[in-house]
Specification:
- The chain is built from eight helices and 17 strands.
- The chain is an alpha/beta fold.
- The protein has two domains: 242 residues, 3-Layer(aba) Sandwich (QueA-like), CATH 3.40.1780; 86 residues, Thrombin, subunit H (Beta Barrel), CATH 2.40.10.
- Strands 2-1-17-16-14-3-12-13-15 form a nine-stranded mixed beta sheet.
Length: 352
């Protein structure tokens, strides 16, 4: 398939710039695969679409303030870093702007901080490796990087949100899910952002389980697809983990005939990475570069809750693999016509 087969037209005004006041007030487009139809609904009604014995699987990763502003030494030119992965204490992979000005050996300082960073390697896809250092060195550099991020880092809001990156307390709270516990993501698992404690309570009241797993959203999730033939795209690896308790709950649900509802594309990738050829979820984790495109055979995911994604993105490819390309794009065209809100702070789609 060609990447151009996964395009659609979206008016700029439908890209949500702010979260709704109430998380669960989002609209929800229910897409029915067996009947090839869809209907407008509301996220707060999600429990009504589930039945006793189902399990909802959510991603409990937590976004950290991964965006840093610095200055090139000695020129003082502005540099923006988006830290994507900790390689070892005080050594990070990062997306850098402007990348062409930061060759190996270049240094970046951060205001009055004692820390500076040296570019020690250039990787594929524009990534750099930086080593953070303080004068005289020392074992505390890794701890000081965390302090630098907590004090000066910004919540890395997507570029299509046209306001200053998340320096506000509101963004630090709202660009997270209510399940966010395990720090390590540079972008939110946005399908989970609609949940509230009251929705979770309503799920429990219907005897629907809620299980947490972890996939730290990294560069792989939002990296542009740079090939024309979609089968040639390879998602960069991301870290995931499934606990013994979560694996047991999911496997017991499947054995009893319940459905596995994946909340988001990141949860789907983690689940499909953790399932064996017999359809059993294995506890543990590691790195996954699983790339899901149309033609993929889903082994554990029965139902998908997901936000609306960018045209020609790997996330849209995954949804099309689950729902079918034609039904997915028909649903997107309906969502545009019905003025749904799109992308991270937008509405959602429930594919059954």
């Amino acid at each position: 398939m060609r990447l151009s087969d996964f395009d659609y037209s979206l008016p700029e005004e439908l890209i949500a710039q702010e979260p709704l006041e109430q998380r669960d007030a989002s609209r929800m487009l229910v897409v029915n695969r067996p009947t090839q139809t869809f209907e407008d609904s509301k996220f707060e009604l999600l429990p009504e679409y589930l039945r006793a014995g189902d399990v909802v699987v959510v991603n409990n990763t937590r976004v950290f303030p991964a965006r840093l502003n610095g200055q090139r030494e000695p020129s003082g030119g502005r540099v923006e870093l988006l830290l994507t992965r900790e390689v070892e204490p005080a050594v990070w992979e990062a997306l850098v702007r402007p990348a062409h000005r930061l060759k190996i050996g270049a240094r970046v300082r951060f205001g009055d901080s004692a820390l500076s960073a040296e570019v020690v390697a250039s990787l594929a896809k524009g990534l750099k490796v930086l080593r953070f250092e303080i004068p005289g060195g020392g074992d505390e550099e890794g701890r000081l990087v965390e302090t630098l991020l907590n004090e000066h880092g910004q919540t890395p809001l997507p570029r299509y949100i046209h306001r200053p990156s998340g320096t506000s307390v509101a963004d630090r709270e709202r660009y997270q899910t209510v399940f966010a516990r395990e720090k390590g993501a540079i972008a939110a698992p946005t399908a989970g952002m609609h949940f509230t404690p009251s929705v979770v309570s309503a799920l429990h009241a219907r005897q629907v389980g809620v299980v947490e797993i972890t996939l730290h959203v990294g560069y792989g999730t939002f990296e542009p697809v740079r090939v024309d033939v979609v089968e040639q795209h390879q998602v960069a690896s991301e870290l995931f983990h499934v606990s013994e308790a979560s694996a047991a709950a999911i496997n017991e649900t499947r054995a009893a005939g319940g459905r596995i509802i994946a909340v988001g594309t990141t949860t789907t990738r983690a689940l499909e990475s953790a399932v064996d050829r017999h359809g059993i979820i294995q506890a543990g984790g590691g790195e996954t570069d699983l790339t899901i495109t149309p033609g993929y055979n889903f082994r554990i995911t029965d139902v998908l809750l997901t936000n609306f994604h960018l045209p020609r993105s790997s996330l849209l490819l995954l949804v099309a693999a689950f729902a079918g390309r034609d039904l997915t794009l028909d649903a997107y065209r309906h969502a545009v016509a019905a003025l749904y809100r799109f992308y991270s702070y937008g509405d959602c789609m429930f594919v059954i």
